[in-house]
Amino acid sequence: MAQLLIQTKENLKAAVAAAIQKGIESGNFPQATLPPVQIEIPANSKNGDFSTNAAMALAGVFHNSPRNIATVICENIDLGEMPIARCEIAGAGFINFYLSDDYYALVLAEALEKKEAFGASDFGKGERINVEFVSANPTGPMHMGNARGGALGDCLAAVLEKAGYYVEREFYVNDAGNQILKFGLSLSIRYLSLYLPENDPRCQLPEDSYHGADILERAKEFAALHGDAYVNAAEAERQQALIDFALPKNIAAMQELMRKYRIDYDTWFLESELHKKEVGEVIDILTEKGYTYEKDGALWFAASKAGGEEFKDEVLVRSNGTPTYFTADIAYHRNKLSKRHFARAIDIWGADHHGHVARLKNALSAVGEDGAALDVVLMQLVRLIKDGKPAKMSKRTGKAITLEDLLNDIPADAVRFLFNMREATSQMDFDLDLAVEQSSQNPVYYVQYAHARICSILRKLEEEGAVIEPCTVEQLKRLDTEEELAIIRHLASLTDEIITAAKAYDPARITRYVTTLANLFHKFYNAHRVAVEDKELMMARVSLCIAVKTTIGSILKMFKITAPEKM
């Protein structure tokens, strides 16, 4: 069952549409094709709790003034049993609707009844969605882009679940292709450097190889196990032995780091699995459809033939016989859509991959998939700030700050919350000092403190012997101050916010929602006492506190952020 706000909006749309139709039947309006009725929530509640511009939208259709049209609509509208106290015409022809006291009481009663399920809906109808995010190469440490992508992807999946979708979280492990060959070569050189003279040419790392300290560390671990047994082995044998040793360790380390970040993936998908069969299937399908050709010893995808001149042809198989990353990517997304039957595949990518989106959609369409079933969220860069200045190096390691460094220095609560404060398309500054500050300036602390403050209120009442009793709808009507109604009005919008966030792939809306809810509660707390002599009013305010606490707690839990009872 949808929340009351959504029900009321839908009922108002129908009522306005019916009133317009009555105007046509009575001869006040001419017969015409009508645009759909829109119901909005005004930014300022003084302009009503709901509003429609239907009269203005119909002015050109009916060749009449918006104010005259609004008058006829208001004369013919039947609000039935909707919790609407009145409607008024404002300005040039807006129609504003004002909620009755029943509405606020009913919203609060619903929040108290549904508890953690409050805000959830069946909007998604169980549609199967795969959300793939982070997917860092297992050849080195994870960076700030992976950090932001982790919070964004995991919280987006949670929002989609709350909106009624079936969601699986996925990490794509690039354990095949050129980067793994480069990984093997880098490990081999580092391993040989442990036993050969420094000036030996076999100990020189090429410019485009992996130079990180982690490569040397894995080579040392391998040497501790095997000694110099592979020094005189064939290069291919040595590299493969090092890959077989180091790659599982790197993947296991990534999995452990993701668990530390509170991300639990349903699937860790290995690219190497695609090369057993599905990469070949993609090549065969494109060849059968006439979308491939050979040039300079390589096999090419005729992207321009498949999708138009805007697309440049792509290499599918290099002249050395190795399929490209692009070919594997086509196979991987075909696997999601056709083999595992997801209705949609959502990928979180860095903004620098924007040019790849249309190319991949075109290729998917060429192999018979629905390219539109792939949605890519392009994520902008993160800039770390320390002491008011950009921070790039870890004081502990002297190297670029990694996700592991960040989680060692900053609580996961703050990392997950702050990375989810802005939409993915916005560049963001992550203030390392603010993230650990215990003040109202720190958004996550501010929200958690609201939860803890309510727990303290309830604890104190219990210590003083107060018996907390559930309120009737009539008793909840006692909540009529500006601060109380503002909280309830905000609670009412949660389902709508969840659905909007799910449709826009923007979980930051919910982080902002819960921050506003905390702000509204702090304002209420500063303006009113909960423990008043009027027992009925006290119980109504206690009910309001419980609804806010439960809602804050459920949102923080949804985003895997702790909701402390004491601070």
What does the model show?
The mean pLDDT is 95. The radius of gyration is 30 Å and the shape is flat. It is α/β, with parallel strands linked by helices and 567 residues long. The strands form four sheets. A five-stranded parallel β-sheet has the order 6-5-4-10-11, sandwiched between helices. Strands 1-3-2 form a three-stranded antiparallel β-sheet. The protein has helices spanning 4-25, 54-62, 66-76, 101-114, 144-162, 178-193, 213-226, 235-260, 271-274, 278-288, 303-307, 325-339, 354-366, 403-409, 412-418, 432-436, 443-463, 473-476, 482-492, 494-504, 508-527, 535-558; strands at 50-52, 84-90, 94-99, 128-132, 166-173, 267-270, 292-295, 298-301, 314-317, 344-350, 374-379, 382-386, 389-390, 428-431. The protein contains 22 helices and 14 strands.
| Gap from first CA to last CA | 36 Å
Task: Please give the radius of gyration in angstroms.
Answer: 30 Å
Query: Treating each run of at least 4 consecutive H or I residues as one helix, how many helices?
Result: 22
Note the main sheet. Answer: 5 strands, parallel
Outline of the structure:
With 567 residues, the protein is α/β, with parallel strands linked by helices.
